[in-house]
Amino acid sequence: DIQMTQSPSSLSASVGDRLTITCRASQSIYSYLNWYQQKPGKAPELLIYTASTLQSGVPSRFSGSGSGTDFTLTISSLQPEDFATYYCQQSHSTPHTFGQGTRLEIK
Amino acid sequence: QVQLVQSGAEVKKPGASVKVSCKASGYTFTSYGFSWVRQAPGQGLEWMGRITVYNGNTHYGQKFQGRVTMTTDTSTRTAYMELRSLRSDDTAMYYCARDRGNYNWFDPWGQGTLVTVSS
After folding, report:
1. B-chain residue closest to A31, CA distance
2. Alpha-carbon distance A103 to A44, whole Å?
3. Which residues pair with B35 in a beta bridge?
4. Span B44-71, pLDDT tens digits
5. What letter does residue B75 receive in the DSSP assignment?
6. How far apart are CA A85 and CA A39, in angstroms?
7. Bridge-partner residues for A49, per DSSP?
8. How far is A17 from chain B (nearest CA, A)?
9. What is the end-to-end Cα distance of chain A in Å, rounded?
10. Those residues with Cβ within 8 angstroms of residue A13's Cβ, 6 or more apart along the chain or in another chain
11. pLDDT class for B102, splitting at 50, 70, 90?
12. I need a labelling partner for A22 at 20 to 30 A (CA). Which of A63, B77, B82, B93 fits?
């Protein structure tokens, strides 16, 4: 199975900050990497697919990059509604494993 | 709009089975598949398996092999996930999500079904 490792596991930030979350795969997954946002008590929602394509309706302050084994999710200017947990997920091969999540909290 | 609506919360005793449904609307049902993902309380997301609707092919995570069955009913546009021999550590929120298999992504997700296993 492909292991997905996110860092950091949690972080505190302020509105307006720029931040980056990283995701590393245990083997090459080319660009088959997706990012999801989950707010408390809600189902996850797709943010970015195939590493860098923004899902329709997602604000442009979100961006993704990377290929192979190393990927990043960047939020250019944090907004209050961005405080949530973020998960990466590989879709290169089954099982479609997720990272352990990054919890983003308000500083 | 594309929507997945799941069945309501369940409480089961250890050793029992649970069957969760996921009703789809707003798209061509047979053009996609479904993945099932669970989330234990306070924990991360765990992929359980998936089913391709048009041919019924399934792929289950090794952890769930022999205990899970995923099916679809094209007449009602509904996907089902049955988990047997329930244990307390199966207590979790269970989500369905639309997908197209490898090289694809999960969108949208159902609202989730809480399954509680308790004696």
Report:
1. B103
2. 13
3. B50, B97
4. 999 999 999 999 999 999 999 999 999 9
5. T
6. 6
7. A53
8. 25
9. 36
10. A19, A78, A104, A105, A106, A107
11. confident
12. B93
- Portion 6-65 of A in contact with B at CB < 8 A: 32, 34, 36, 38, 43-46, 49-50, 55
d(CA B113, CA B119): 19
Contact yes or no for B111/B104 (Cβ under 8 A): no
* B96 CB-near residues (< 8 Å, 6+ apart): B4, B6, B20, B22, B34, B35, B36, B37, B79, B81, B109, B110
Distances (CA, A) of B27 to A54, A61, B55: 21, 29, 17
pLDDT beyond 90 at B100:
no
Sequential pLDDT tens for chain A (107 residues): 999 999 999 999 999 999 999 999 999 999 999 999 999 999 999 999 999 999 999 999 999 999 999 999 999 999 999 999 999 999 999 999 999 999 999 88
CA distance B37 to chain A (A): 10
Q: Is B3 on the interface with A (CB under 8 A)?
A: no
What is the four-CA torsion angle of A17, A50, B31, B92, rounded to 10 degrees? -60
